[in-house]
Design a protein that fits this description.
CATH class: Alpha Beta
Number of strands: 6
Shape: globular
Low-confidence stretches: none
Structural class: alpha+beta
CATH architecture: 3-Layer(aba) Sandwich
Number of domains: 1
Distance between the termini: 14 Å
Mean pLDDT: 87
Helix content: 10-25%
Strand content: 15-25%
Strand order of the largest sheet: 1-2-3-4-6-5
Order of helices and strands: EEHHEHEHHEE
Number of helices: 5
Length: 180
């Protein structure tokens, strides 16, 4: 199914087969949201996502799984910054999250992906006031949080995580989720 996808601008396939990304800028900082197509359950399990704890009934879907990465990027060299914390003032952090969510939805619109998986980066420099797991769980309505207004717009999408056992991984199924 993935081979039939025609990725057009603003998506870019420069990193090779099965990997697409899209750039955006907020407050003068360039970011990349990347997607890697996962073709098999074995490949998914090698990504470090505790899929069966996060989503116990998960079956590999017909419409495919994509990992999502998000980081600052040097727009000239296309090098990522290694998931370092970026301090935002005012509503800029919310704008960044809105852009990421919009790009994921645009990717879904083209690919009809059944599921997305991603992990919250560790804060190795201890610069974040709020750990990314807390932020992502609040956004997705997990760990006792209500679904955010942003995630409520993704009708038919469901989220799970392995954060209850100390993990940092998330699984989001879309309304296209159908198992093999």
């Amino acid at each position: 199914m993935v081979n039939a996808i025609s990725w057009r601008h603003p998506f870019n396939e420069a990193f090779g087969d099965g990997i697409v990304f899209r750039l955006f800028e907020t407050a003068g900082i360039a970011y990349a949201v990347g997607f890697e197509h996962i073709k098999t359950m074995h490949e998914l399990l090698t990504k470090g996502v505790d899929i069966y704890h996060a989503c116990p009934d998960f079956l590999f879907p017909v419409n495919g799984v994509w990992t999502v990465i998000f980081d600052r990027i040097d727009p000239l060299t296309q090098q990522l910054y290694g998931y370092q914390h970026v301090e935002h003032t005012g509503v800029m952090g919310g704008r960044v999250l809105f852009n990421v969510a919009s790009i994921i939805f645009d990717h879904y619109t083209v690919s009809c992906a059944a599921a997305y998986v991603f992990s919250a980066a560790n804060d190795c420099e201890n610069q974040r006031k709020t750990d990314l797991t807390e932020l992502y769980s609040a956004l997705l309505g997990l760990d006792g949080h209500p679904r955010s207004r942003l995630f409520q717009r993704f009708d038919g999408w469901c989220a799970w995580s392995d954060t209850a056992i100390g993990g940092r991984s998330y699984v989001v199924t879309t309304k296209s989720y159908k198992s093999l």
